[in-house]
Specification:
The protein is mainly α. The chain has 2 domains: 1-55, Arc Repressor Mutant, subunit A (Orthogonal Bundle); 66-230, Orthogonal Bundle (Tetracycline Repressor, domain 2), CATH 1.10.357.10. It is built from 11 helices and no strands. The termini are far apart. It has helices at 2-31, 38-45, 49-52, 59-84, 90-107, 109-116, 122-125, 130-152, 165-177, 184-205, 217-230.
């Protein structure tokens, strides 16, 4: 009896959390991030503001939980693209994952902007936070593919002493944080490729390039080809020799 009651309670709680997350998404998409307040979300789900605090202790905690959900959706889309090409060369998988990221962002611009355009609070940067763990899953996808490429077909990298000392120090720390899976000079190439592609996508989703472009897909594809070249790979869209 007790186990059954607990299970039912858990199901009801999960249903309420899902409803809360759905309310946040609706407010975000229809009215923008400024509309996502505790009281507005509570009204959407038919409860009082104080009642919502039984589920989330603060607005910051609510933001972290919803952001984690969006990150998991994005990561799932990228993982599915990777798995559909599981038997193909790593370059084709990298391209598929990057295109899946853009496709998700285009389909969910408000959610993508919510994830990446706003500051991350100190609480949501903590390793134990739900948002941080979901972010790690997302970040791991391209990192794992790049590590696989480095281990099987090392790409061109600069000599470490060619890099500014401050940059070497930061890259060494990053390399250590990923257990040395990429040496600092390879991490430099990986992070440069990633930030360039990600930065272009953020500018597209946030309409920062509307003054010049009505369709950024060709620009994204050109950038993607250049980055694939920087990783020492041939154009993966060309038939294999």
């Amino acid at each position: 009896m007790t186990a059954g009651t607990g299970s039912r309670r858990e199901r009801l709680r999960k249903a309420t959390l899902d409803e809360i997350h759905g309310a946040v998404r609706t407010l975000l998409v229809e009215q923008g991030p400024g509309a996502v307040t505790i009281n507005a979300v509570a009204r959407q789900v038919g409860m009082s503001g104080p009642a919502l605090y039984h589920y989330y202790a603060s607005h910051d905690e609510l933001v972290g939980a919803v952001t984690a959900g969006f990150l998991r959706e994005l990561a799932t889309a990228m993982e599915q693209a990777r798995e559909t090409r599981a038997e193909e060369p790593v370059g084709r998988r990298i391209v598929a994952v990057c295109r899946a990221m853009r496709a998700w962002a285009i389909a969910h611009p408000a959610e993508f902007g919510w994830i990446f355009a706003g500051p991350i609070s100190p609480a949501n940067r903590r390793p134990e936070s739900t948002r941080h763990r979901a972010g790690q899953r997302f970040e791991q996808i391209l990192l794992d593919l790049t590590v696989e490429l480095w281990q099987t077909r090392p790409f061109p990298v600069p000599e470490p002493d060619e890099l500014p000392e401050s940059l070497r120090t930061q890259l060494a720390a990053y390399s250590a944080s990923i257990d040395g899976r990429l040496p600092l000079e390879a991490a430099h190439v990986f992070l440069g490729c990633w930030t360039r592609l990600y930065g272009l996508l953020c500018m597209e989703i946030l309409h920062q390039l509307d003054f010049a472009y009505t369709d950024l897909e060709p620009v994204f594809e050109e950038c993607l080809r250049e980055l694939i070249g920087a990783l020492g790979l041939d154009d993966p869209d060309q038939p294999a020799a």
